[in-house]
Amino acid sequence: MIEILNLHKSFGELQVLKGIDLEMEHGKVLVIIGPSGSGKTTLLRCFNLLEVPDQGSLSLSDIKINFTDNKKIPQKSILALRQKTGMVFQSYNLFPHMTALGNVMEGQVTVQKRSKDEARERALQLLTKVGLADKADAYPHQLSGGQQQRVAIARAMAVDPEVLLFDEPTSALDPELVGEVLKVIKQLAAEGMTMVIVTHEMKFAADVADRIILMDGGHILEQGTPQEVLEHPQHPRALQFLNRISGEEV
Amino acid sequence: MDDRKIQIFLDSLLPLLKAGVAFTIPLALISFALGLILAILTALARLSPWVLPKLIARFYVWVIRGTPLLVQLFIIFYGLPAVGIVLDPFIAATIGFTLSVGAYSSEIIRAAILSIHKGQWEAAFSVGMTRTQALRRVILPQAARVSVPPLSNSFISLVKDTSLAATITYTEMFRTAQQVASTSYEPLLIYCEAGLFYLLFCSVLSALQNYLEKRLSRYSAS
Description:
Chain B: InterPro entries: AA_ABC_transptr_permease_3TM (IPR010065), ArtM/GltK/GlnP/TcyL/YhdX-like (IPR043429), MetI-like (IPR000515), MetI-like_sf (IPR035906). Chain B: It comes from Paenibacillus odorifer. Chain B: Pfam families: BPD_transp_1. The structure holds 2 protein chains of 2 kinds. Chain A contains 9 helices and 10 strands. Chain A is of the alpha/beta class. A 6-stranded mixed β-sheet of chain A has the order 6-7-8-3-9-10, sandwiched between helices. In chain A, a hairpin with a 2-residue loop joins strand 9 (211-216) and strand 10. The longest helix of chain A is centred in the C-terminal third of the chain and has 16 residues, at 175-190. The N and C termini of chain A lie far apart (37 Å). In chain A, 48% of the residues are buried. By secondary structure, chain B is mainly α. Chain B has a single domain, classed as Orthogonal Bundle (MetI-like fold), CATH 1.10.3720. Chain B has 8 helices and no strands. In chain B, helix 1 (3-47) packs across helix 8 (187-216) and helix 2 (51-66) packs across helix 4 (89-115). Classes of the chains: A alpha/beta, B mainly alpha. The A-B interface holds A 48, 50, 75, 79, 82-83, 85-87, 89, 91, 93-98, 106-107, 110-112, 139-141, 155-156, 158-159 and B 117, 119-120, 122-130, 133, 137-138, 141-142, 145, 218-221.
């Protein structure tokens, strides 16, 4: 369903992705872990072209895009790709001038041209799903971080994407609010939603992932089932990273 | 104050108010509305990825900000007839003030757009919006809130600047005051009276600004 081949990305002199290959199937959950600066967020942002790779190719169901230096990607392909993906950001990025309901309706009305009634119905359905039906009329600043992030998940799902992208969805949250967001993501996984998740929550990763990728220095160091990657890493640097993380969690 | 002065003061209240309501305020409102549109277009041109619109916008702002408004009004009203363009005083004044508001306010709007966190653009893009949709639905509504105080400043300045239109024979409030002053021989009294009217108009605008800020801040904690 998603295939990435030989993806390269640099910011100026800094090479952030140095040839990434990966494949994933429909209905699976891929978790990307790795030390900060390893390129995992950049890789995730390439999935919906918030970052445009310099080289390589990306295909998502029927869309295939080749990247070569300096070649502009047609706006049509970018928009088509973004309609098949939804993204949840570390800092939520809800639209502050719209209510929770407005946030979830916005993409449906503006991008997909659904009628307001249809969009409202779908939005309420999604807010109910993330447990926030009673907050439909609240503005983002009236919600806790965990509630905002759940609205953001509903917003990302509202345009019926084929894959949901999560960029460290719990990193900005107070510890006691992490659980409610992870619970929603787990529920989505159980329902067969295709997801790519960048996270530092190792226990959650082990729980929810079908496959885990461990990145370091712009390369994929390890990939496999959670058991393979988390318990039997092959690469010494992977082991080092996992030890450090588990040390922090104890 | 003797009775004669009081009588002159009272007699001129109505003509001044009339000139203010019928000429000063419409000139300010129309120029500001058109100027805002021009300002938004100019700000967008300056922020666009294309070179030509950027250059045109920068040139326009450079020229208008770098020359006195009075000189611009004189060029438009007294200068252009030399090349066959004769304009009615109201039209000439509207053009002059619109260009002025457009240039100054474009900087306010540009700064307001730049002040919106880039995460807002990314969130808009991630639900599939084009740049135009993101601007219209997400960025500009937030930028509008940020720009209310500085834009109110511009509008208040404009209301006072409309008195310059007196110099190109547009009979707004100040020109009316000049006429009353010259016939009554009471310049101190009449010009103070005109000043009071400007003060009144601007106070109403300040109140309006407060109201607008309160209304637009309903979605923010601060």
